[in-house]
Specification:
The structure holds two protein chains of two kinds. By secondary structure, chain A is an alpha+beta fold. Chain A folds into two domains: about 55-210, Uridine Diphospho-n-acetylenolpyruvylglucosamine Reductase, domain 3 (2-Layer Sandwich); about 215-305, CO dehydrogenase flavoprotein, C-terminal domain (Enolase-like, domain 1, 2-Layer Sandwich), CATH 3.30.390. Chain A has helices at about 15-20, 35-40, 75-80, 85-90, 90-95, 100-105, 110-115, 125-135, 160-165, 270-275, 290-305; strands spanning about 5-10, 25-30, 50, 60-65, 65-70, 170-175, 180-185, 205-210, 215-220, 235-240, 245-250, 255-260. In chain A, a hairpin with a 4-residue loop joins strand 10 (about 235-240) and strand 11 (about 245-250). The longest helix of chain A is centred in the C-terminal third of the chain and has 18 residues, at about 290-305. The termini of chain A are far apart. In chain A, about 55% of the residues are buried. Chain B is α+β, with helices and mostly antiparallel strands. Chain B has four domains: about 1-185, Beta-grasp domain (Ubiquitin-like (UB roll), Roll); about 200-290 and about 355-405 and about 410-440, Alpha-Beta Complex (Aldehyde Oxidoreductase, domain 3), CATH 3.90.1170; about 515-605 and about 770-920, Aldehyde oxidase/xanthine dehydrogenase, molybdopterin binding domain (Aldehyde Oxidoreductase, domain 4, 2-Layer Sandwich), CATH 3.30.365.10; about 620-755, Aldehyde oxidase/xanthine dehydrogenase, molybdopterin binding domain (Aldehyde Oxidoreductase, domain 4, 2-Layer Sandwich). Chain B is built from 24 helices and 36 strands. In chain B, the strands form nine sheets. A seven-stranded mixed beta sheet of chain B has the order 8-10-6-17-14-15-16, with helices on both faces. Chain B has a six-stranded mixed beta sheet with strand order 12-20-19-18-13-36. In chain B, a hairpin with a 6-residue loop joins strand 31 (about 775-790) and strand 32 (about 795-805). Classes of the chains: A alpha+beta, B alpha+beta. Chains A and B meet through helix 2, helix 6, helix 8 and helix 11 of A and strand 4 and helix 24 of B.
């Protein structure tokens, strides 16, 4: 179907699904603080933007006996203000506060943040720039420019909230033509910088669910300025009362790196070493590759300390 | 297109708009409310903030249709019937407005925040404003205004009490005369001006760094509906450049391109969108040439390859070499007890003014008129006459309000030539407005530099000798580069007395956007180095680095080794002031490990004594006209770019005349109506235009007094003007202003007088003696305190204390603003700003990746004005807008050394580097223990 409009605001989930299934080459857009920029720069070729930020059903945050459900269109500002979230998931509030700037957070949503398009110096550029540099892998070129010619795309996963959500054990509720399903949040990330999530374009992220627990999560973010900047490294490390450790690392790989284990059964040092080694860090950031690698170690070790875990 | 309905500032609007249109576009272009500014088009700078359905929104990235049927409030809707509301009054009163371009977004964001968070603390306010970038103020006065607003708002105060007009004008703080216009969103910047039948121009930019243009096919672009004209390089063959020795640029590339982003063709169309689409239809065939991206690549013989410019003297890409030597450096080093020598590597930085370049040109019976965001209407006037091949009398350059410059709008620019040309070809007004990416591509910023510096002193810490070997990366064209080359050396000959002094600098062409003049021109990078070497010597001699500096300062009224005439000199006072304010001695002795405090000093010109284009015309002329209405019209070519020169002129004239500020009116920077001023560069305007205005006012005053004396048959010496009244010492004469004006204008009409400024003959007679000559010099000092995290290498800047000798603060509020802005810009270069290139392509051409410090990254700043009273400056004043930048960078670097023993030789200072040096130092220590 050919729509007369290329920007379509929808009010309900049903309407959103109808639109996406009836249009060729359409995508969902939430707060759009990144998508609109990418669209203006020609990084998004979609002909239609279906704006789901006005779906009221997705703007709620509900507390259940065993979990909390945060609607995908819940803004980061609302997360910061939510008493429930401050009480049960204070680290998520820290992560939300670390995203962009206060004004952007009023528009940016949790759904948009966890699905934020991966970034790279060689990709987040104007059409002219990308033509001049000779397109990289992520914009239909042949090689990765950040690595000087590798055949994989290493664009950075930059969500700050996702690592924390994963550390808390969050799941994503997805809607597509077949109905609703619930998956662990980390499972939606592919690790491929070009197509960084498993969701197809016709899938809508409805909400994020986080199980209530006594888990403590430590969040850290590396960036040159205290605001505005996308992450150079984000870590979220959690420990529950059964000594299950979960280390989630963002900003240094095309996907959030998750390393986990039970400290009663597994060697802590081994887990930490794995966490430090696993991310495929490349030169596509304000900070050098080696520095960011060094900082993974520092951040993880400091987080463990804050959780009361002694290394060595 | 479809229908969109908006209620903007309570007024309903319905437009036809495109789905892709942004809210800012609809507000500005369709509703005509230009108070909403667009600074980055990516939601990174906050200038476009408006309130939509009660919440602040970044209108430059938001599709207008998201807010179909919504209520929008823009800056124009904030005031009540044109009366500023309390927060706006505070912005004005506190001096929180300089160029004013960030102001509307800043005000709306702040007001929304405080109204929703009435108990906000200062830290909350900093956080709330952290998405609104300001390049002028260093945020200090903005935070002050908003903090005070929070207090007053809580108390239910609606308006500030009016300020009682003081009869004293000079030395009394006052807001800029146009501050209210800016805070209301009424000040018109280049892109705000409205013209009928306007064409919009976009440029096709080179996708090659260095390539021959073999063919350009514009036929498809020409055929597009809505395209009025397509221009290519050969239509504008005349070369231009700001310096007569560097006319090396054409409006568009003709035979070859020399950097990524150079303009190859231009399209004027009925909208920017059409013009942009048409640009994509132009086919260019390039033949790539060998590229040169670094100083190292450019100094070598090119062999059979093409040089970047054929006019380079040798078979390499060296643009300019400059070398001056005084005394005997070899002997100096031989006689030194201690020598410090280091190599430095400094990245280029951008002015990053918030207003992108914009201009509109048209032709009529008077020839060409261009309204453009420029700091140099006069040089543009000349360049346009040359390139358009018309007499000087057929060009008129008008500067509207300008959203910051810092040297980045001080060259004639290709886009100004191109739109003038297309306007002539089409008979229609033509506009160009840059994207933020284009601003970065045009560059003209501070040169990336690599250099060695060596300094020698005796065992008491008395400096003996300095040698510097400096290479600067100029990019593809000359700009101010020849001057920059000299400044990197000559401005090191003070504030310390160094007898054996010399340097060699060379500037290379590379295939990158050109570098030029930027705040603190030429001397910032080498000053950082010199102050670092002094710190090293002091450390090794175990002398307090402040005390060592105090011992070495030149005194007042001296001639330096390179024949600079130093008159007033507040270097000692400045340094002593920051030592005292910071608690230097105590901190130095007692700060814990990881904390550090460091010092740096500075030295800068207060106006170049020599004009760029050598002639006998004065450096500036100011006209005054007094007519029957009693108002004094000040006309001056001076370009107010947010630094406050209009206000300065008004204050100087009012003070000199003895009248109140309501009786003066400033007409500035219109090359048809105002006499020549060379422009806002080299920190010359207060000194030179201030002097010319003062001279003119004195003439006008004596003409009035002569007329009164004659009419009242009293000796002129008995008369004076005070509080806008003409009085005699015996009080027999006591005339109201208009009575005196009637007498003065009787039988002759309006009085017109002229003042000018011509710099005294200065300097030596050797080649290169003219570089850095100034009728006066400014001095300053900064102390910075930092905390260094030894685990991460992250440097937290805790506090900056700064003092600057401006001779006399004509308007202390404005001087503080200049100092705070300078320090803020220096902090940016020190800790986070750099232009990062990948094979000649700028990687970080936006405000997200180019890291200007935000409110949260700017430390507490303690501002101190030092008044040494310059003998030749107007009322004793000299510069304050650039020199203050110099000391802050080395102060931070030296503080880091003090904190953790890491010597900084690279800018920006990165945690990467600090950490690796911390580790290296620990290694050395460990080995020493073993």
């Amino acid at each position: 179907m050919e729509a007369t409009q290329s920007y379509i605001k929808v009010k309900t989930t049903n309407e959103a699904m109808q639109q996406i299934n009836s249009l060729q080459n359409a995508i969902f857009v939430a707060g759009g603080t990144d998508v609109f920029v990418n669209k203006q720069q020609g990084n998004i070729e979609a002909g239609y933007l279906i704006d789901v930020s006005g779906i009221e059903d997705l703007m709620t945050c509900r507390l259940y006996d065993d979990r909390i459900e945060i609607g995908a269109m819940f803004t980061l500002e609302k997360i910061i203000q939510s008493e429930t979230i401050n009480t049960h998931f204070p680290t998520l509030v820290q992560a939300a506060l670390a995203v962009a700037t206060p004004v952007i957070r009023k528009t940016a949503t949790i759904g948009g943040n966890v699905l934020c398009e991966n970034r790279c110096f060689y990709y987040n550029q104007s059409e002219w720039w990308r033509e001049a540099v000779g397109h990289c892998l992520k914009c239909n070129g042949d090689i990765c420019l950040a690595t000087g010619g590798r055949k994989n795309c290493f664009s950075k996963f930059v969500s700050d909230t996702a690592p924390v959500l994963i550390a808390y054990g969050a799941t994503a509720i997805l809607i597509d033509a077949d109905g609703e399903r619930c998956v662990p949040l980390e499972s939606i990330y592919t690790g491929d910088g070009i197509v960084s999530v498993t969701l197809n374009k016709k899938t809508l992220l409805k909400s994020i669910e986080i199980p209530l627990s006594t888990k403590k999560v430590i969040f850290k973010k590396l960036r040159p300025r205290k605001t505005l900047d996308f992450t150079s490294l984000t870590t979220a490390v959690s420990l529950d009362n059964k000594m299950n450790l979960r280390m989630v690392i963002g900003g240094v790989d095309p996907k959030p790196i998750v390393v986990e284990g039970n400290l009663k059964k597994e060697d802590l040092l081994q887990l930490v070493t794995t966490a430090i080694k696993k991310p495929r860090v490349v030169e596509n950031d304000f900070y050098s590759r080696t520095y960011r690698k060094d900082m993974i170690k520092v951040f993880i070790e400091n987080s463990l300390n804050e959780l009361g875990i002694q290394i060595n | 297109m479809r229908k969109i309905s908006l209620k903007i500032n309570n007024k309903p609007y319905t437009f036809l708009a495109n789905d892709s249109e942004t809210l800012s576009h609809v507000i500005r272009e369709r509703a005509g409310l230009t108070g909403t500014k667009v600074g980055c088009s990516q939601g990174s700078c906050g200038a476009c903030t408006v309130i939509a359905d009660g919440e602040p929104v970044l209108s430059c990235i938001t599709p207008a249709f998201r807010f179909d049927n919504a209520e929008i409030q823009t800056i124009e809707g904030l005031s009540n019937q044109g009366t500023p509301e309390l927060l706006q009054e505070l912005f004005v009163r506190k001096g929180a407005i300089q160029c004013g371009f960030c102001t509307p977004g800043m005000v709306l964001t702040a007001k929304d925040f405080v109204n929703k968070n009435p108990n906000a603390t200062k830290q909350d306010i900093k956080e709330a404003l952290s998405g609104n970038l300001c390049r002028c103020t260093g945020y200090k006065k903005i935070i002050e205004a908003v903090t005070e607003y929070t207090e007053l708002h809580k108390q239910g105060v609606e308006h500030l009490p009016p300020v009682e007009e003081s009869s004293k004008i000079i030395g009394v703080s006052r807001p800029y005369i146009e501050a209210e216009k800016k805070v209301l969103g009424k000040a018109l910047y280049a892109d705000d001006l409205q013209f009928r039948n306007l064409l919009y121009c976009k440029f096709l930019r080179s996708t090659h760094a260095h390539a021959l243009i073999e063919d350009i096919d514009i036929s498809e672009a020409q055929k597009m509906e809505g395209v009025a004209y397509v221009a290519v390089g050969k239509e504008l063959p005349e070369k231009f450049g700001v310096l007569p020795v560097s006319h090396d640029e054409t409006a568009m590339a003709i035979e070859k391109t020399r950097y990524f982003g150079e303009i190859v063709a231009a399209v004027a169309a009925e909208s920017f969108e059409i013009a942009e689409a048409a640009c994509k239809k132009i086919k260019v065939k390039y033949k790539p040439l060998k590229t040169y991206f670094s100083i190292e690549e450019s100094i070598h013989d090119v062999g059979d390859n093409a040089k970047i410019h054929e006019h380079c003297k040798f078979n390499n890409n060296i643009h300019k070499k400059a070398e001056l030597r005084f005394g005997n450096q070899e002997e100096g080093f031989n006689n030194s007890d201690i020598i410090s020598e280091m190599e430095f590597d400094v990245e280029g930085v951008s002015h990053a003014f918030t207003e992108p370049h914009s201009a509109t040109a048209y032709w009529d019976e008077n020839g060409l008129t261009i309204h453009t965001a420029t700091q140099v209407p006069h040089y543009l006037h000349r360049a346009l006459a040359k390139v358009m091949q018309v007499p000087l009398s057929r060009v008129r350059v008008i500067k509207p309000y300008v959203g910051g410059g810092f040297g980045g709008k001080s060259d004639p620019f290709p886009h100004e030539m191109i739109i003038s040309h297309i306007a002539r070809k089409t008979g229609r007004p033509v506009r160009s407005t840059f994207t933020r990416e284009e601003v970065f591509l045009s560059n003209h910023g501070r040169h990336p530099s690599k250099f060695k510096m060596k300094m020698g002193a005796d065992s008491n810490g008395m400096l003996k000798v300095l040698d510097a070997d400096v290479a600067i990366d100029g990019g593809a064209y000359g700009s101010f580069g020849v001057v920059t080359s000299y400044y990197n050396g000559v401005l090191l000959q003070a504030p310390y007395e160094i007898k054996d002094f010399g340097f060699r600098t060379y500037r290379v062409y590379t295939n990158k956007p050109q570098c030029g003049a930027m705040r603190g021109h030429g001397a910032v990078n080498t000053r950082f180095a010199a102050e670092t070497l002094i710190d090293d010597i002091a450390h090794r001699l175990n002398i307090d680095p402040c005390e060592m500096r105090l011992k070495n300062f030149y005194k007042e009224n001296v001639i330096t080794i390179g024949q600079f005439r130093i008159t007033s000199n507040g270097s000692r006072m400045a340094l002593q002031q920051v030592m005292e304010r910071s608690g230097w001695k105590d901190k130095r002795a007692n700060l814990p490990a990881g904390r550090g405090i460091g010092v740096g000093c500075g030295f800068f010109i207060s106006g170049s004594a020599l004009p760029i284009i050598w002639n006998e015309y004065p450096q500036t002329v100011v006209h005054l006209k007094l007519d029957f209405d009693g108002r004094i019209l000040i006309s001056s070519g001076a370009s107010d770019i947010g630094q406050g020169s209009d206000t300065m002129l008004a204050m100087v004239v009012a003070e000199t005349m003895g009248v109140d500020m309501q009786k003066v009116f400033v007409l500035a920077a219109d090359t048809l109506l105002t006499p020549v001023d060379l422009g806002s560069y080299s920190s010359r305007v207060t000194f030179m235009c201030g002097n010319a205005a003062k001279q003119a006012a004195e003439k006008l005053k004596s003409e009035i007094l002569e007329a009164v004396a004659k009419r009242k048959a009293i000796a002129i010496e008995e008369l004076y003007i005070e509080n806008s009244r003409v009085r005699s010492n015996d009080k027999q004469v006591d005339l109201e202003w208009l009575e005196a004006v009637d007498m003065a204008t009787a039988h002759r009409g309006a009085l017109t007088v002229s003042g000018n400024y011509i710099s005294p003959k200065l300097g030596g007679d050797f080649k290169g003696a003219g570089a850095g000559l100034s009728p006066s010099y400014s001095f300053g000092a900064c102390i910075a305190e930092v905390n260094v995290d030894k685990q991460t290498g992250q440097v937290e800047l805790l506090h900056v204390w700064g003092a600057h000798d401006c001779g006399k603060a004509l308007n202390p509020l404005a001087v503080e603003g200049q100092l705070e802005g300078s320090w803020h810009m220096g902090i940016g270069q020190a800790v986070s700003e750099e232009m990062k290139y990948f094979n000649g392509l700028l990687l970080n051409n936006n405000f997200c990746d180019y890291k200007i410090p935000t409110t949260l990254d700017t430390p507490e700043i303690d501002t101190n004005i030092i008044e040494s009273g310059d003998p030749e400056g107007p009322f004793g004043a000299k510069e304050c807008g650039e020199g203050a930048l110099h000391p802050v960078i080395p102060a931070i670097a030296n503080a880091i050394f003090n904190a953790c023993g890491v010597r900084i030789t690279k800018l920006p200072i990165k945690a990467d580097e600090v950490l690796s040096q911390i580790k290296a130092n620990m290694q050395v220590k460990a080995e020493a223990i073993n």
